[in-house]
Design brief:
alpha/beta; Collagenase (Catalytic Domain); 3-stranded mixed sheet; 5 helices; globular; binds zinc ion
Length: about 180
Amino acid sequence: MKIHVLGSKNVPKHVLETITEGLRNVFPETKFKIETKSLKVPSQAFNQDRQQYLSTIILGEIRKHAEKQRLTIALGVVDVDLYVPQLNFVFGEAECPGKAAVISTFRLNPEIYDRPPNETLLTERCIKEAVHEIGHALGLMHCRNPFCVMHFSNSIYDTDVKQRFFCTKCYSTLVKILEKKEALS
Ligand SMILES: [Zn+2]
Ligand SMILES: [Zn+2]
């Protein structure tokens, strides 16, 4: 697999590097690369009433990159508050299955919950949500195991409880998906 990580302009490079290292740790067989050009968040994604960005529009932008570069998946990392119409907010979104995934650092940052800055906690949360969205892009659904990375995060509490790894059930599904992908390529 080939996965590119694309940060929007206010996401620091070292944060992208830490996230990518974490992803390599979970997907050791995958080639990861951090894109040097920053991801442009389309202005049409901004919803004036909600003061949030519609993640589906950003996904479209990321998908274009994935197709152009012939990637397995492109993962966008943005710092704006994301939403989808049915929910108050989302930590991220992905095509399921597909080539595009996005996460936002906005609600993963402890400072938004009036906690002191903590980059280790922020990047750990980013890694979990990034693995989760990549899991969706590969075709995995939500898992009921609260410690599995594919567990749905309704709040930051759920993100902190879950681990960055797949439970044995999701892992075996993932292995089957990857074998199929290998056979097709
Ligand atoms: Zn999900
Ligand atoms: Zn699971």
